[in-house]
Amino acid sequence: MPSNFLMIAIAIVLPTLLVLIAVYVMLRYFSGQNEKQFDFLKANQDLTRLKLESERKKEREKVLIPLRLQAYERMVLFLERINPPNLLTREMKAGLTIAQLQGVILKALREEYEHNMSQQLYIDEVCWEQIKAAKEKIVQLVNSAASKFKTDEEGIKLANEILTGGFEVGNDLIEKAMLAIKKEINNNY
Description:
Layout: H1 2-82, H2 84-91, H3 98-116, H4 125-146, H5 155-165, H6 173-188
Helix pairs in contact: 1-3, 1-6, 3-4, 3-5, 4-5, 4-6
């Protein structure tokens, strides 16, 4: 009887063991296949994400490049408009006193700047700082020139002082700002 029992136990255990081994091997195989499929799907998803990001970037650039170039154009125009000879040509009127001309010039500078302030969104910070420095230098030039005269003197004296006092050679902040804009355009486009 013990040998019969052993035979029955082997007859029951051996097929069960073989089935368990087969199931284990199949599960490992399918698990490996699933892992490969998962890795493939993940890589495919990453590739799709990169393509979408690239397409979005191209679409953004289609919109941003013209806006940025327009901002550069506007800032060049701003710098030209606040250049003392151009500013004085536009703002000088006969009969103005020093104080009146100073006020008119400073108001024009402020309005031009405020009108173009939003362009800083599209311009490099270093370039924008040079544009602001040029504007501030002109404000200083106007105030410094005005302080040399009595407020009720003829405005033409202030205009002449601004034009003759102007920027020192090599220290023309308008020209430096223009060069910074040109450099930024050349570096980016």
